[in-house]
Structures are given as structure tokens and as C-alpha cells.
Amino acid sequence: MKHFKKGFATLLVAASLCAQGAFAQGTLRVGMTAADIPLTTGQTDQGGEGMRFMGYTVYDSLIEWDLTSADQPSVLIPGLATEWSVDEADKTKWTFTLREGVTYHDGSTFTAADVVWNFDKLLDETSEQYDSRQAAQGKSRIPAVASYTAIDDYTLEIVTKTPDATLPYQLAWILMSSPAQFEAVGKNWEAFAASPSGTGPWKLDTFVPRERAELVPNTDYWDETRIPKLDKMVLIPLPEPNARAAALLSGQVDWIEAPAPDTIPAMTANGFVISSNAYPHNWTWHLSRLEGSPWNDIRVRQAANLAIDRDGMSALLGGLMVPAKGFLPPSSQWFGNPTFDVRYDPDAAKELLAEAGYSVENPLQVKALISPSGSGQMLPLPMNEYIQQNLAEVGIEVEFIVVEWNQMINLWRAGAEDPSVDGAMSINFTYFIQDPFTGLIRHLSCDLIAPNGTNWGHYCDPEMQALFDQIKTTFDAEEQDAVMRQTHEKYVDEALFLMVTHDVAPRALASTVKGFVQAQNWYQNFSSITME
Amino acid sequence: MFRYFIRRVILMLPVAFGVSVICFLLVQIAPGDPLTAIMPVDATADEQAAMRAIYGLDKPLPVQYAIWIGNLFQGDMGNSIATGRPVAGEVFGAVQNSLLLAFSAAVIAFPIGIFLGFLAGYFRDTLLDRTVTAISIAGVSVPNYWLGIVLVIIFSVNLGWLPSMGAGPGGSQDWAWDWLHMRHLVLPAVTLAVVPIGIVARTVRALAGDLLTQDFVMALYAKGMSRGDVLRHVARNAAATALSVMGLQLGYLLGGSILIETVFNWPGSGFLLSNAIFQRDLPLLQGTILVLALFFVAMNLIVDVAQAAIDPRIKRS
């Protein structure tokens, strides 16, 4: 595949391309990486891309991400809820004031009863609107929720299982489908999928499974600043990177997600714009902390982090990465001030390894799980080979266990102790790190050790656990941010992961696409876009 | 002839059963988990177990097979795990698109292959023969996905004459036999036709060359028959084998176009199969493989019957 892509890039350059412009003023045609149109019923599938194109476009959540700035990290803002607070006496009880005057695309009015209906859709298997496909996507996003009640039309109460200050972040996942539309289509989610109704800034107009979806503006949207300026946005699944590039270069689409790095020179040479920005994404090696793992030695962990030439890797990726300075991107509001400087310093790495008893002549031998491809994995094979070379230069000899992506996910879920990982001491995985839980807690929490959770390496440290507890029980947002920073500092200072790089979510745009602001987020706002 | 047909249909039944068992077991052997496609990667073990039960994936394999085959007999191929949509609709929609592509490629490939093969066979060991042989070998040897990419660069990206992807401006549902839609078919069909052109040309060349040296040809000439009439006899003698090769090629065109459909984003069965493999979408995978395999079996039947009709010696054997 690597040669295939390189050959394609060479041919592209050699062919001296001439792209055509968009065929319709006001229509944006997007080539997605997904193989299918994301689930249209509310809770989307297809990962971050699904939420980006079919989630926050057609639907809203109670609390949303601010997607207006390219310079600042995204923060939570009011969505369908205008205010929320936790009870001073009982920290499990939350009250949400809902936005009035919001209507679904079918014309029905949004109320607190609808929120209850939507929670039941995901959590109550006895309810008529329970949808296993949406539940599969949404239930695990709201682990804190114990119960929910509509106090009146515009007041909602949610009770959590234990005090949990991360609830607002959890609620940003949950999208509101229209109960009236569900009723109108015969209480059938398959029928709802064909003509969905949410409260979002876009309406789904046409939907051909696996081929295209056409969205048109919701001119009655409650937030006037987010009423789309385009006439139409067409979503086209184009999972093969070269097919995406060809579609853009031949003028069949105006925008592609994740162009292959080796096609970018040809695109920029022909007037296409590459948009990118830091966002909460992390490409890392999750280390095993089982007894006997060499990664239990902080000197080895720090040495490995100092051995990686991230600038060299950046050249490999055409500059489309942010070199890691920690587990979170340097621009994150939760980065803090770690004392361990993640940098390229092979001499310091060798010294640390020598202290630990290893050298180039007497190398440490480790097994590492990697995959040849995978969602968000960037270019895993060349990147891992690059790391293998870097580590060998300081005295760490890496043997790869290469498995296909779907199987890799299973091995990640199974954890480092499972026999299926074949003694691997690390796993190369990319992480969505957008909120406190996905960003920090889930990777190292003692109660989430695999297979019960996603703590692959079986790490458990009382001090870290206390910090996680503090994050969950700090209800003041600024104070919570401070605890997050403290937690991240511990992540970095103790070099708990091999911190390599962050993706920059590259997308290639025709020069006719104007007004797009790439937020530091997995999701984006398409309402400001116009076609020239 | 009718008895021959019935006998072949009856023989198809155990083959179809074997195909169903193999395609069910094959997809189970592959590592991976279909739930990966429908659940967030960090879903807990309990949530996964609950979802596994909902989809019946927690049952023993023989039970899963019995349920699947039982539903199949009732015309229900189940629902795709990844999309929730009925497998039958997904598969037959995709197969329809693949048939369109496969027949278009066959319409291009078979006449050209036959013509070139006959030409080479008739003028054996001449420059023309060597040229045709070189073209045939090139057709068989060139990776067609590479050729597809080159054609896209030339005709879509550089010249802007033809689209590089999709099955029409509004998707395959709006397919119409007009230039606006058919232009989407040109590049994938031409790319797909290259391999069968080579195979058919080589087969026909060998057949024609062999037949033209046989005694009955000399006898026909000796009887004073014209060259055209002799060639007609040769063609009829070659037809049975050539038909068999073309029938198999049509089967390959339908089921073996995964790479071409991926390069051109053509919404056919190959594209569907490729996505189902990556998503471990077992019902969709089983359904697609089964339909393609049965199509292949049916193609064999049609070819056998057609062969028997053309050449009575086959029926007698």
C-alpha cells in the first residue's frame, strides 16, 4: 500500500494536473473517509467523523463544543440547555434549564420530556423507542447517569450514580432525535433513518446508503449565527485515500478529509488549500505495567521518550503532525507545566538506559503491537518503523507483532495480561482525548483495568487515582481545569506513555471554499462556509 | 436436454449447501469482532456482552448457522450489523451495480478478445500473432488497479473528460442510460475489461490455431468449401470452450472487481465486500459471499447448458 500511494503521488505530480472548479455555487461536496453515510438517527457511528458530519450538523446536544475559534482550545458552551448546576447539598443531583422556542425539523417543539425520551432511547430497553444501534454508540458515553426526570417543560433533573463533575462533558455526546418524527414514521428507526429530524443547523434532504447524503440549511435554527450560508452540503463516502485525492483533483468534490501526505504537494501545487490544526488527538504507545515489564522502570520510559526524533518523523509526514511534548497537545488547556522535557536527546537516553543496565551492545528487547492501518492511526507502519530505528540507536530492540486493525481493537480491549497479546509490552494506539474522561482518566484508572475498561497496561497508582477522583469531584470548572493540569503533569513527568505525536486533522479544500475555521476539535462548524 | 438441465440443477443443491457452510465458517475463522463496527472502541466488557447477546453472537456456532440458514430459507438474510439495514437489500442493490459494470466490461472484452484471438490464431507465427500475444500477456499481467489509477489521472484529473468515481451524479439509485450517467461507467468498465481481453484472446488464439491444423479443416478445403465457410466450422468447434472461459470470466468480473470498485468508488458487490471485511460485518459478509458464490454456480450451469446446446458431444458424455 505504501508503494501504491507513493506511485500514485509520483504519477500525480508527473501528470501536471489541472483541476476543475465546483459545479454549483453554494454547494459544498465533501469526500469523507468513512465507507458509509454515518448513522442518521441521532447517535452516529463512524467515530469522530460520524459526529462531525451527521451528528452536530443534523442534531444538537444539551451542551456543545465551541467550534468558533482556530486559536483557542474548544470549551463547552450551552446547547439545548442554557444553564446547568449541581445541587450544593447533594452533588449527584443536577438541574438543567432548557432552551425555549427550539423546534425540530418536523416542526415539533423541543421540551424536557424529549430529553427523557432520548435518554430512554439509549438506556431503557423496555421503552418503545429503545434502539440497540444508537444505544451501542451512546450508552457508554454517559456512564455517570443514574436517572433523569422532566421537572417541567424546560427544566430537567439528572441524578448521577456518584458525584461526577465530568457529567457536562458526557452530555456533549448525547444528541436529541425528534419523538414526534419517530411517531410519524411508525415508530421505526429504519424509517426514521431515511427521514430524520433533529434540531440541528442542517436538515437531511436526500440519503443514498453508502453513496451520498445531501444536507440543506435549517433556516429556523435557534442560533442565528450558525444558520448555514451554503445552499447544500453533499457528503460522499470515499474510504480509499487515492480515490479521494482523484475526486478532489478532478473537481468531483470540493473538500476531502485526511488527504494522504504524499498527495499533498500535488494538491498545493494546483491551488488546493490544506487546512489543519492541532486537536485533541494522540498517537502513542500504551505501555504494559504488568509485573516484569521493562516499562515499569521510569528510566527506560524516559529514555524511550528521549530517543524519538519527532522532527524527523514530521518530515516523513509532510509536516502534518504536532510533535508530542506530553500526552495532551501543547495547546491544550490542560497541558500544565511538566518538568520532564519530551525532546530528542539520544545521548541522555543512552545515559538513562545505561543506568537501567542496557546499551546498544546489550539492548533491552521488547515486543510491540502495531497495526498496518486503522482509524486515526495516521501512517502506522512507516511511523513505527521509524520509532523502531530510533529506539535501536539507543539500545532498545523492538520486535513488532503486526495485527489487522479490527483485531488490534480486540487486543486493546483485552489488555496487556491477556494471552492473545502474545507477551506484547506495548500497543500502538491513537486516542480521542477531548474531555477529562477520554483524555486522562480512562487510560490509567484502577477501576478501568482491562478487560473491564480501557486501562490496557494495568497501571494502578494511588496518587494518580486520587487525582482522578479529584477531577470527578471538583465542580468548579476552573478548579477542575487546574486538577487536570496537575494530572497531566504527572503523566508527562513519569513518562507514562511513549508520547510521539498528535495528528492535525488535515483536509484539502478547493480554493473556492471560503470561510472555514478549523477548530481545535474533532467536530467542526460548517455553517460559516461559502463557495466562491 | 431437459433431463440434462434438471440433473445439473439437482447437482447444484449440494454445491449451494457446501457454499453456505464454507462462507459461514470462513468469516468466523477470521480474527476480529463485528461489534467493533457498531460500538465505541472503549465500550466496557459488560456493554459488549449485552450487545453480543442482542445480535445473537453469544450463541454456539452451529446454532448461529442453523438460525442463519433457517432465516435464509424464509428469504431473510438478516440485517447488517454495521448499518442495521437488511442484508438482502444491501447485497442485491450492490450486485445490480456490479452486474452493470461486469456486463459492460464483458461487452467490451469478449468481442475484442475473440476478434484478436481469431486473428492471431489464423495468422499464427506472424508479426500480427506476436503483437496480439504481447497485448494479451500485457492485459493479463498489468495490475488493473494500477491501470485504473493511470486512466483516472489521464482522463479525469488531467483531461477532465470523465468522472473518477461514483455511479452517476446522484448515486446509483438514479441510474439512467444517458451520457451523464454512462460516462461514470466508462473508466471502470474499460479497466475491468483488460484482463478478460487478454484471457479470451489467448484462449481463442490457441483454439483457432489448433483447429486450423486439424484434418477436418483440410477435408473441408478439399471439398471446395470457401474460407469463410471453413472459418464458420472452426468457430463453431471453438465456441464451446471459448464460451466456458467467457462464462467463468463473467463470474470473475462480478466477484473479483474489489480493487476496481475501490479505485473508482463504484457501489458494487466488491466494494460492499471490502467494507464488510474491514468491519467484520458477518451477516453482510456471509450474504454477499453466498450470493456471489451462487451466481458463480449459476453461471457455470448456464455455460454448461449452453455448451451442451452448441456441442452435442458434451451432452452425451
TrEMBL record, chain A:
Which residue windows are coiled coil? none
Q: What's a single GO BP term from this record?
A: peptide transport
- Which UniProt keywords are listed? Signal
Q: Which GO terms describe its molecular function?
A: peptide transmembrane transporter activity
Q: Name one GO cellular component term.
A: outer membrane-bounded periplasmic space
Q: What is its main location?
A: periplasm
Task: List localization entries.
Answer: Periplasm
Q: Where is the Solute-binding protein family domain?
A: 76-423
Keyword Signal on entry: yes
Q: Where is the signal peptide?
A: 1-24
Q: Which Gene3D superfamilies match?
A: Dipeptide-binding Protein, Domain 1, Dipeptide-binding Protein, Domain 3, Periplasmic binding protein-like II
In terms of CDD domains, this protein maps to: PBP2_NikA_DppA_OppA_like_8 (cd08495)
For this chain, the family text in UniProt reads:
Belongs to the bacterial solute-binding protein 5 family.
* Protein name, as recorded: ABC-type transport system substrate-binding protein
Please report the organism this UniProt entry assigns to the protein.
Yoonia sediminilitoris
Automatic annotation (TrEMBL), chain B:
Report the membrane topology from the UniProt record. Multi-pass membrane protein
Transmembrane regions listed in the UniProt entry: 9-30, 99-123, 144-162, 182-201, 242-264, 284-306
Q: Which domain of life is it from?
A: Bacteria
Q: Which Gene3D superfamilies match?
A: MetI-like
Q: What InterPro entries does the record point to?
A: BPD_transp_1_N, MetI-like, MetI-like_sf
Keyword list (alphabetical) reads:
Cell membrane, Membrane, Transmembrane, Transmembrane helix, Transport
GO molecular function terms listed in the Swiss-Prot or TrEMBL record: dipeptide transmembrane transporter activity
Q: Where is the ABC transmembrane type-1 domain?
A: 95-307
What is the protein name given in its UniProt record? Peptide/nickel transport system permease protein
Protein's organism: Yoonia sediminilitoris
